[in-house]
Design brief:
The chain is an alpha+beta fold. It has 12 helices and 7 strands. Helices cover about 45% and strands about 10% of the residues. It has a 5-stranded antiparallel β-sheet with strand order 2-1-7-6-5. Strands 3-4 form a two-stranded antiparallel sheet. The protein is globular, with a radius of gyration of 18 Å. The protein binds glutamine. This is Glutaminase.
Amino acid sequence: SLQIASLPLQSFLDDLHDKYKLEQEGAVADYIPELAKVNPDAFSICIATVNGEVYKVGDYNQLFTIQSISKVFVYGLALDDHGRDYILTRVGVEPTGDAFNAIVLDEQSKRPYNPMVNAGAIATTSLIKGFGASERLNRMLDMFRRYIGHDVFVDIAVFTSERTTGHRNRAMAHLMLNFGMIDEPIDEALDLYFQQCAVMVNCQDLAVMAATLANKGVNPISKEQAVDSRYIKDILSVMYTCGMYNFAGEWAYKVGIPAKSGISGGIIAVVPNQMGIAVFSPRLDSRGNSVRGVKVCEELSQHFGLHLFECS
Ligand code: GLN
């Protein structure tokens, strides 16, 4: 296995950051109006190892909303709350090949295809246990705290912005309500979903969260168990097959490690038993993945031979 500590990893990250900081391709997401305010040039790369070492370069302290990367962790919380068998009756594990916001359910089962697309994520969020909206939100924030190692907050401006413009997600919730895949009150589930997407993180936080998944669910710095280790394989499997939306297949082929991207420009990637990788750069390609993020991960994977099926 890879001896990450013996590699000149920091200087490699510094060089990668230098190499891609002039890359201007892509566009910042603006369908959530508040997201368009981000500095499009922001850029950081962080790696956290399962030994608790953190390597970082660029704007690693800059806060941004986690967006779809939250889906990974909320799926873990739902598994913790209900167990694998029940969750599988409500949300599938099949990649769609469609965009993240596709309004599509499995024809036969009426389940959303998987928890990494919006429909599946909203269904997953609707299952989070708690008495009333505030207890559910607090349980979710506490779950994020375990992965990150410090308290987290919801960006109210982004939350409100998405809440007032998120008609497509609202439509999906109604469709799922129609098929009995989620229960009333759906406005509460949608609010919680918009809140989870608006949790603020920086690139360093994301690397530690990814490293926690790489480390059997134990935060490598605080040593806290963030999710039951038995669900790590569930989480990483859906990340591997569905985490990059309709780019998931090509990502699995080229980069070869479980990953998740978000519309605010973050990507996390998990190298099991070794490290978590995070990149933040808000300019996105046509599928909604960070342009620099994809390039950086491709190069990291190639250079260090991180592809899970690498044999040479
Ligand atoms: N909150 C966003 C949405 O539901 C998250 C999408 C994403 O990051 N891909 O549209």
